[in-house]
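Dear support,

I submitted the protein below through the web form. The confirmation email said the job was done, but the results page showed an empty box. After a refresh the structure appeared. I'm attaching both so you can tell me whether what I see now is the final result or a partial one.
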Amino acid sequence: GEDGLQASRAVPLRLFPDAQGALVTDAPAAASLSFVDTGLGVDPRGTCILIAGGSRVGCYPLGLPTAQFFITEPFTEDTRFSGIARAHLGLSHSMPLGHVGVTLYQVADGQWAPMTYGIASYNTRDHEQRYVTVTPMQPFEQDVELLVRDFTISAGQQLAVAIGAQVGRNPMGLSGNGFLPLPSGGISQVLLGGDTWIELQQLPGPAA
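What the results page shows now:
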């Protein structure tokens, strides 16, 4: 077994989202992508339209997306990750309050399966017990810790991440139930470049 939630032999792997929707190991050129917080869930296929009882009837792109999605190239060998994944995001937001959700997906044969997630308030970004308002459209930095998981990405599979106003946290579906925080109605910009990244803990050697 490993020696705790954060294995001492783990090696950090930092992945940067770029403007083309890729997750890459080198910091990309500066750019920005936007998402809107309408209270709707996040789904790689588009904005979900639901009927009473929660049955999915279709996902259609309606206006601004509720999240931006980024994906790696297929892995060339089985790779195990264990411990605390986290995101560091450069952001701006159009309203005084808001939040961001980050979801990590395993992608196999075109199927996106949520594996872990985290959500954080813009208004407690400096300290969880200190509330500060957002100055609209002024850049700031936000850390988001994801729930601890131990998982393996098999050769040929991909890792993907969603950055949006919700999280896809239910393994039974693409978007799941989410946290359903009160929507701000605002638009967030993800400021891509060296200050926006996802860090995973990779275990060296053959995946167990």
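Response: this is the final, complete result; the empty box was a page-load delay. Confidence is low (pLDDT under 50) at residues 170-177.
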